[in-house]
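FAQ: What does the model actually see?

It sees only this:
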Amino acid sequence: MLRLHDLAPPPGSKRKRKRVARGTSGKGGKTAGRGTKGTRARGTVPVWYEGGQLPLQVRLPKRKGFKNPFRVEYQPVNLDTLEACGLDEITPAELLARGLVSKGAMVKVLGRGEITRPITVKAHAASGSARAAIEGAGGSVEILPPTFGGPRPPAQGNQHTNR
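And it is asked to produce this:
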């Protein structure tokens, strides 16, 4: 039966630490692998130290706030614009053809204006007032999936721009 005092690591898996700077005769003696002279030969240097040059964290301007890299941008389309279109079924492709939204944009219907006839709206989002106005006029609102794949859009910028 295996006992606690019999446990040992497999041979060759544990190596002794290399002891440097133990005299000029030994391997790794005298300069101990640090070269000759210079800042790093004499003591420890912080990783952010740039040799006396103004450090990066001081060079960059101090900026307030936070910019969400996963923000979802919608292009707004109001009810008065949909009323003026004269279409019964409104889709992002129809709005693109009329020059009301950009290519590949996600469309959000907002509630400014009035709608007097029943229309079918297919958009990526709709405000509560717009949905109530469209359904009150006898129309319907269908929410489309987002244009980007996955649960959230791809990140914008990099780790330095996100501040």
